[in-house]
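Spend some time on the protein that follows and explain the fold to me:
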Amino acid sequence: MTAVQGQTLRQLGPTVYLPSAVYSTGLGAVAPVIVLTATGLGASPATAAVVAGLLGLGQITGSLPAGVLISRIGERRTMLAAAGLAVPALLACMYAPDVLLLGAAVALLGLCGSAWALSRHAYLTEAVRPELRARAMSTLGGVGRIGTFSGPFLGAGAMHVAGLDGAYMVAIAGVGLATVILVLLPPVPHDRAVPPGADRPGLWPVIRANRHTLRTLGAGVLLVGALRASRQTILPLWGASLGLEPATIGLVYGISGGIDMLLFYPAGKLMDQYGRRAAAVPAMTLLGLAHILLPLASGVVGLTAAALLMGFGNGLSAGLVMTLGADASPAAGRAEFLGPWRLCSDVGQGGGPLLIGAVTAAATLSAAAVVVGGCGVLAAFLLNRWIPYGSGRPPAT
């Protein structure tokens, strides 16, 4: 085992988790205000929702080129480039004179976030001990969730002083601080691009060589992304349909997010000790069941129960997609593989809310909840079918 592969989570903390936590906290501050910025520029609610959705579109668009870029210039340089583009994108959001420029800036933010996240994923895949892989990935996902959870509170405090611009100032400060941390801290042991004279597998050859994995296990990951994103949409919609106050809905959603955050390390430990299926199948089953039971919620108690079940299921899947991607990635062309792997999840995350909207428009919100719940059951089946047997289990002694 190499020295690089022998790193522990404590050793990874300052160089890997700290910059990611700061970066995600900064971007978390602006996530709730993009819609408000769009409406302030005269956009209708529907147009404002489209502008907010461009963040996800940027993430989808950035997945494949980010993998190629990491292979060419390395993880650290890719993150510095992403942060360097994120700051002007945030400034453009602050000072956008119209919705068109705002939408372009939001899409660029999504692209930068994709490059940053994929860089950390690619690094951890090679840097951490194999027996700690799931815990490393779930911790990375956990610090991102903590940042996304705490960022809006910092943004809200800044907005009391400087209006909507305050949230963007917090984001710029977060991205800038993350960049400073990257520059000042010593480089991580593994941060290498493929040497210029070396044989690069290339993106499309890597996709062709791994098409079976992307077609089978990737389909399950797509559904995982859809389930995770749909809970963020369907809980507020169901609360609104019950006539609950926005503050009450926000509290219920926050409780669900709190349960989610508390489980990231136990989820990783479960996958490392008992295999990936031990977390993947129960997590998707619980998420699917929570969606199916949601139409039975007739008040705040029922909504809270469903939200807690969703939070538990989502928390149990912390780091799952990154861990499975790391397990499946080839030694040659790893970054090129992780790009389309992340694309599978990103497409699911973008498609989940769209599925809810389409089924609700064609039928009812209850029908949408049941359909998405069925996707959770299907995801559990596909993951159980296609996760390699014994994946993540420690060797027998």
Summary: Residues 211-241 form the longest helix (31 residues). The radius of gyration is 20 Å.
